[in-house]
Amino acid sequence: MAIKLVLTAEQIGNKIFKGIPRGYDPYEVDKFLDQIILDYERVEGNYLATTTEIEGLKKRITQLEKEKADMEIELGKFKAKYSKIKPTDNVTDDNINLIKRINTLETFLWQNGFNPHNIK
Questions:
Q1: In whole angstroms, what is the distance from residue 19 CA to residue 100 CA?
Q2: What angle do CA 45, 12, 39 make, to 5 degrees?
Q3: pTM for this prediction
Q4: How far is Cα 11 from Cα 112, in angstroms, rounded to an integer?
């Protein structure tokens, strides 16, 4: 929603009206135009701030879309990794903790030069 203003605050402030014998009081006209200038300046300021904010939000959307795509790739990897687990496999926290513990112990053995598969 772009705002297209016909006049700027400067154009309003510099406008000179022709004098006529039974016209309006120039001081009153100037005072009213000063109020209009203030409103225009606010509108212009809001427009610039909004435009800047929109650009920032567009960049953030692009960044979040990239993060989403990366997460979807990672999700696909996890789905492939855990696709062999069936609901009837009875996976519990205890089982997962035991697997983590076994992995830690095997890593320790490998680091110390032992093959855990040959230990009986």
A1: 91
A2: 35
A3: 0.47
A4: 83
